[in-house]
Write a structure and sequence with these properties.
Elements (H helix, E strand, L loop, with lengths): L1 E6 L1 H7 L3 E5 L5 H11 L3 H5 L3 E4 L2 E3 L10 E5 L6
Length: 80
């Protein structure tokens, strides 16, 4: 059972690609976040200000994931 994780901006640069597939095995967004931080410790600074979306809907870190979900790691957006 897999979840696709999409990265943008600084997180994409740190990971070195725009997406990864992870075995989720009944995990929550927080579980995936912790797994990503273990694999890519440099994400810690970026993860202080990101929000998460599952299937294009913003979610809390306690949200349970299902097979085939797409988890987006969304950085803050600025403009002027």
């Amino acid at each position: 059972m897999m979840v696709k994780v999409l990265f943008f901006a600084e997180a994409k640069r740190i990971v070195g690609k725009g997406e990864v597939d992870l075995d989720f095995a009944g995990k929550t967004v927080l579980d995936i976040k912790e797994e990503l931080l273990e694999k890519y410790p440099s994400l810690e600074t970026s993860f202080n200000s990101v929000v998460f979306a599952v299937n294009e809907q913003y979610v809390a870190e306690g949200t349970a994931l299902k097979d085939g979900d797409v988890l987006a790691v969304i950085p803050p957006v600025g403009g002027g």
